[in-house]
Amino acid sequence: MAKGRVVNDIRTLRFLAGEMTQAELGEKIGLTRQTVAAIEQGKYSPSLEAAFRIAQIFGKPLEEVFRWEE
């Protein structure tokens, strides 16, 4: 079975969105700053619902925020 992981561009998107903090993003999507940090660092995969909410905040399709990397 191939191993892979979910990677994301949240840090870059936050920077481009006026240097939005992890806490600000968490507030907008209903997650803690710690959870946002863990998702951003690839230590935690968000629920599908949270992933869609994150993408929506940045006005991007899901696949421009999250992707699968082998």
UniProtKB/TrEMBL annotation:
SUPFAM superfamilies the record matches: lambda repressor-like DNA-binding domains (SSF47413)
Occurrences of domain HTH cro/C1-type (ranges): 20-65
Pfam family, any one: HTH_3
Domain of life (superkingdom): Bacteria
Keywords recorded for this protein, A-Z: DNA-binding
GO molecular function ontology, one term from the record: DNA binding
Protein name according to UniProt: Putative transcriptional regulator
Naturally occurring in which organism (per UniProt): Sphingomonas kyeonggiensis
